[in-house]
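Now for today's protein.

===
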Amino acid sequence: MRDAMTAAGLPLDCRPHGLRKTLGRLLADAGATAHEIMAALGHMTLAEAEHYSREADRRRGGKRAILKLEDHKANRSPRPDFVSEGSDPSAKRQHHPALPQLYLSWTASCG
């Protein structure tokens, strides 16, 4: 694992569980369903995977609420309910691009 983390340019204090959580968050933010997250992360129950989708829904809902308030203050007509995650790169946490692939290669090596 150390060699893979060094090759990916990740700090050595990363832990497999942290990589797994990051992948769950990235999948949810990308719009993956709880069932898809469950399959990708190997969760045994749907409730484990729904944690990620609930958090992503909450973040998207918060962004929509702030945009509605800004529109109201500026006396603009409301924006559509869907706000693309990619529309404001500063609003989401930046992850190292190698994290999903590193996690998948690690899980494959664990059998």
Remarks:
- The longest helix spans residues 46-73.
